[in-house]
Design a protein that fits this description.
By secondary structure, this protein is mainly β. 0% of the residues lie in helices and 45% in strands. It contains no helices and 32 strands. It is globular, with a radius of gyration of 20 Å.
């Protein structure tokens, strides 16, 4: 796909949000703290209804865990938790993961850590049920590493390759996109720095990426750009192996178009036009009420330009500061906010955005009373139920896993 710079901007006016009768939220697990995990950071869906996640803290050593939740055998039974791995500062396995893991086609769990020791790792399942999972550190390689702060999760490519964004480090100190390619035969993964952000107009501190079918990497940076409010970028592979060229598609201004994007974008069907996908994402600031919102970037074949719009603005009382990447299912979007901006629900919200082209209409599914607000991403299982985590709350205050039917 040929990438062109953005030449036009269309800001969609603010529409009233709608708050429907809230869906019933059910807590399915409450973290107890060490040796259990604490502060869960989102989830990944596994086979047969299994959920996987990571906690930033807790475990026997206090540096976080990788956990598995197994659904009950009967409809009203209890979910069971298993700790698959505990992070420790006594080895190179990393500490303090701040994102959700991903599940590979081989059944392995892949994740990243963002603490003092930043790694990308693979957890391979045991050969026999009940055995130990085996961790292999894929990054950093056995050379001095320059990228760190993998706080936005991983993206799995079509051939099992992994993409991660480092929010700090890199050649210029403004972060980098790192690529990892699995070996064709058992052996070491190859690691390449796909792109080092130089700062300035090119952006600084990448906050996650999405991968298109033709190999273009799309993402956002939290800082940099012409207004210093972050950019939307595309990294296009060149003829030379593992070399990418950056094109800035949009510069945020911090006004009605939002600013400082801090969560990974997603590629989803467009609301209008004839293009394979649109780039959607959130900003925690800007918008009509200053509480952030959802941006939408689409390629216009007629004009040969990218066009940005802001189809939803968070408003006082209906959530603010979106705290996760969007989840898209059948053109409906789901996400969480970090703050409800009302004293009685200061813990944030779970929201649903339904298309009403060219707008998105909000339904608030749940408001958290606070301070036990939602953390990390949402996942939806085949039966249409959303699952997520709260960073605190529960009897011990170490966080919970919940489910809710939209």
């Amino acid at each position: 796909m040929k990438i062109f710079p953005l030449l036009s901007l269309a800001i969609i006016p603010l529409l009233p949000a709608r708050t429907a009768a809230q869906s019933q939220l059910q807590t399915i697990y409450k973290f107890a703290g060490p040796p259990d995990g604490a502060a869960p950071q989102g989830l990944a869906a596994g086979p047969n209804g299994t959920l996987y996640g990571m906690t930033a803290n807790g475990g026997s050593f206090g540096y976080g865990t990788v956990f598995q939740l197994t659904p009950p055998s009967s409809p009203h039974g209890q979910w069971s938790e298993s700790i698959l791995y505990e992070f420790t500062d006594s080895n190179s396995g990393g500490t303090n993961p701040y994102s959700a893991p991903v599940v590979g086609k081989d059944g392995s769990i892949y994740g990243a850590t963002g603490g003092a020791v930043s790694t990308i790792f693979q957890l391979q399942p045991p050969a026999a049920p009940g055995g130990d999972w085996t961790e292999t550190v894929l990054y950093p390689p056995e050379v001095e590493s320059t990228a760190a702060g993998f706080n936005h999760g991983l993206v799995v490519g079509p051939n099992g390759e992994l993409y991660a964004t480092a929010s700090i480090g890199g050649f210029y100190g403004c972060g980098a996109v790192v690529g990892l390619t699995p070996p064709s035969v058992p052996g070491k993964w190859s690691v390449t720095m796909q792109y080092d952000f130089p700062g300035g107009d090119s952006g600084c501190k990448p906050a996650g990426v999405a991968l298109s079918a033709d190999g273009v990497i799309y993402g956002v940076t939290t800082y940099g750009g012409t207004s210093g409010q972050g950019v939307i970028f595309a990294l296009t592979p060149t003829a030379a192996p593992y070399v990418y060229t950056e094109t800035v598609l949009y510069n945020f201004t911090g006004g009605d178009d939002g600013g400082f994007p801090a969560q990974p974008p997603i590629l989803a069907p467009p609301q209008f036009g004839y293009t394979p996908f649109a780039i959607y994402g959130t900003t925690p600031s800007g918008g009509a009420a200053g509480l952030g919102g959802v941006f939408y970037l689409i390629w216009n074949f007629a004009s040969g330009t990218w066009g940005e719009s802001f189809p939803f603005h968070f408003q006082l009382g209906n959530g603010g500061i979106p705290g996760s990447a969007l989840l898209e299912v059948n053109s409906v979007f789901y996400g969480v906010t970090a703050n409800g901006y009302v004293k009685s629900d200061a813990g944030g919200s779970i929201f649903q955005l339904s298309p009403d082209p060219p707008y998105l209409t909000e339904t608030v599914l749940h408001k958290f009373p606070g301070p036990a607000g939602p953390s990390g991403n949402l996942v939806m299982t085949k039966n249409g139920i959303l699952y997520g985590t709260t960073v605190s709350g529960g009897p011990a205050g170490f966080g919970t896993v919940y489910r809710i039917k939209p």
